[in-house]
Write a structure and sequence with these properties.
The structure holds two protein chains of two kinds. Chain A has helices at about 15-25, 35-45, 65-80, 95-100, 120-145, 175-185, 265-270; strands at about 5-10, 30-35, 50-55, 85-90, 105-110, 210-215, 220-225, 255. By secondary structure, chain A is α/β, with parallel strands linked by helices. In chain A, helix 2 runs parallel beside helix 3 (about 65-80). Chain B has six helices and five strands. Classes of the chains: A alpha/beta, B alpha/beta.
Chain lengths: ~280, ~130
């Protein structure tokens, strides 16, 4: 089975750089781009990335602008394990120190190398590969944190649900709860969602008794129980029950199913067999 | 300022600079070891504890980053890379392994000032951490 491409976010206010980097990476990665801090932050809040490539000065005319460093700080909030490569045409010791020492950027790359040579795209691609591998390593570590997630999450405002999931849900209280949970899943809890950029929701009743996701890396289904939600009476499909040995939580799960493009639904539901 | 007895390790293969900085820093009250290779630096750094390890960038990365990493591991926050030419790229390499970076001063007197400043801030750091 061909492995799905990892998604990389590229943030630069200069279209030519977005083009060069996208072209250079799109063969091996699914590339998303943003041209300013606001758009990039919105994307980061909505989607999970293994790697963000971030230009520092995101308002070209503003010499003091360091929006890229702000964005890197945000990334550390949303997804601590993700890799970041900072790129800049205005290298400074201070921003390098902030990026690398303080916010753990994987690298800080000069668009115009100090020796006067051209930007080396193939060397950059290698850095990208290394940064992705580094982030994958972080995921493994983060897996040990899997069940520290607090199931009692305060509801968030409506309509902030990850874009891809929004149409599937109504505006019930449960949807809000799920909204919050998915955010935690996509960011803090990222390691369990191997391809969080693409998730499919199957809406069933009772809604959101739990969230089930298949962890490719752990090789098993993981479930998170949602508590305090109003349930309706409809039956939920048997395949959404999780075999006890594959699950840390043996209660029934329904409402949402994470499916991943490299894993067919049959394979997935084969693991998630009826338990009764 | 009380700088007495702080141990400094200078790693520089430029004999004149190494000798003169050792003399100047000793005059200032520091205990100074001067070595001319990363291997010697590592030997010293693994035997003794230094308040500050000052490494010329030309040597620091000459044989890959692992000797430098090992020194940093033993002396966290106390390793500084000095570069002859101002280079953000060199600084980035230093930061990546957890070392600090400064442009190498032209004058020995400026090196003494720099060392004073770094020792002072490291001491403040350790006092506030305690």
């Amino acid at each position: 089975m061909a492995r799905a491409k990892e998604t990389v976010l590229i943030v630069d206010d200069q279209q030519n750089w977005l083009d060069v980097l996208s072209k250079g990476l799109e063969k091996d990665y699914a590339v998303e781009t943003a041209a300013n801090y606001k758009d990039a932050k919105a994307i980061l809040q909505r989607k999970a990335f293994l790697l963000a490539i971030i230009d520092i000065r995101l308002v070209g005319k503003d010499e003091k602008n360091v929006d890229g460093i702000r964005l890197l700080a945000d990334l550390r909030q949303f997804a601590d394990g993700a890799s970041a490569i900072i790129i800049t045409g205005y290298p400074e010791i201070e921003t390098a120190k902030d990026a690398v020492l303080r916010y753990k950027a994987f690298d800080y790359v000069l668009k115009y190398p100090e020796d006067g040579s051209e930007f080396d795209l193939s060397a950059f691609r290698e850095k990208v590969q290394n940064a992705i591998e580094f982030a994958l390593g972080n995921r493994q570590k983060a897996i040990t944190l899997e069940f520290k997630l607090d199931p009692y999450l305060s509801p968030m405002s409506k309509g902030e649900l990850a874009g891809a999931l929004a149409p599937e849900l109504d505006s019930s209280e449960a949807a809000q709860e799920l909204d919050q949970l998915l955010r935690r899943l996509l960011y803090d809890f990222l390691p369990l969602a191997p391809m969080a950029g693409w998730a499919k929701v199957i809406k069933e009743k009772p809604p959101m008794a739990g969230v089930l996701c298949w962890s490719r890396r752990l090789g098993k289904a993981l479930a998170i129980e949602l508590k305090g939600l109003k349930e309706t009476s409809r039956e939920f499909p048997a395949f959404l029950r999780v075999e006890e040995k594959h699950s840390h939580v043996t209660r029934h799960f329904s409402g949402i199913l994470y499916a991943f493009p490299e894993l067919s639904f049959d394979v997935f539901s084969g693991i998630v067999k009826s338990s009764k | 300022m009380n700088t007495s007895k702080a141990r400094i390790l200078i790693v520089d293969d430029e004999p004149k600079w190494g000798r003169n900085s050792k003399l100047a820093l000793e005059e200032r009250g520091y205990i100074v070891e001067w070595v001319q290779s990363m291997k010697e630096a590592y030997d010293h750094a693994s035997r003794e504890r230094f308040a500050l390890v000052v490494i010329n960038s030309a040597l620091a990365f000459a044989e890959g980053t692992s000797p430098l990493k090992r020194i940093v591991r033993r002396h966290p926050r106390s390793v500084i890379i000095l570069s002859d030419v101002h280079s953000v790229a060199v600084a980035v390499e230093a930061f990546k392994v957890g070392a600090d970076y400064e442009d190498k001063p032209f004058e020995i007197s400026n090196l003494v000032n720099l060392v004073d400043r770094l020792i002072c801030s490291l001491r403040t750091e350790s006092v506030s951490a305690a």
